[in-house]
Amino acid sequence: MKTRVVVAGARFGQVYLEALGNPNQPFELAGVLAGGSERSQACARRYGVPLYTSPSQIPEDVKFACVVIRGGLLGGKGSQLAQELMARGMHVLQEHPLHHDELAQNLKTARRNKVIYQLNPFYTHTEPVRRFLGAARELLSRQKPLYIDAACGFQLAYSMLDIIGMAVGGVRPWAFGPVPEMNPDIASATPLDIPFRSLDGVLAGIPITLRVQNQMDPADPDNYAHLMHRLSIGTEAGNLTLLSTHGPVVWTARPDFPREVAENDAKPHYESVLDEDDVPSSIVIGQAQVPSYLHVFRSVWPEGIVHAVGELKAAADAGEDPLRKGQYHLSLCQLWQDLTLRLGPPQLLGSRPPVMLTNEDLAALTAAADKAGEA
Asked: Residue 138: is its pLDDT beyond 70?
């Protein structure tokens, strides 16, 4: 018998509904918990499940809930609802981000009611990021990290920090300097916005440069990012890069050119000096094909949610202490709040939907690259 799960929230909650409404996964969507708007009514009709407008209406045999409503830090009542559900004996997965104190209160509520509560940072549950994390852990079991280079939109900062923390085994100790003031000579040299601000620091004891696009369109706050996540972890031998949130993962060997000319050898000196074990200078790790955004929304994200709910159920079945994972996310919340305080409020911009490249455009780029390479 499938485990029944209710989803609270009908905006980003639609991604959760799509995930749990799929019959080809181990959970059953038990209902939508929302305020009764036309959107939530439409969602309930689409997935053929009841619409609940109060936790008291949820049947007692439903023991799992996903809360996809903004927390207090972003002006929502997600944590208040999560605590009500936990008081009813329900295990709760809540979408990030949260204020540190808000998360601490949720964890206390979970312990008091003997249930599992987990914060969902979302992206570390998706397959492309899990592939990167698997490769990173294997790499760091062989060589220690020397540096981290990362870039993201400000909306993705919490999840970026989570990806880094999961890759290197934590976030402490950390230290960041102030964000430098924009040099007026630089600003006056271009009519364009300068989208990224850089922070230098240390994360998990590793030197890091973090570039954040600290800009937002208040009319469309979840969009306008030039990129989502881009991350490189460097070692003595080279660097492992998550090129974008949905892949690919690329290994790039560190340049190491011959410094000596071999004597009394008819071969070119680089053949004499270099190792016979000729490894690639760069290689795609795992899948080279990256999903389209349509495939991301239909499959990659929903499968990531099922993975996250699966971890919640496994923790509940094992009777784990919610603080086991909670302590890590408490640190992550503190780090995220520290960074956002240093960055300051995002620059408010008006934006319009970007002009995207079509498949024909991409084919033209490929043809131009091939022609230039053959010239």
From this structure: yes
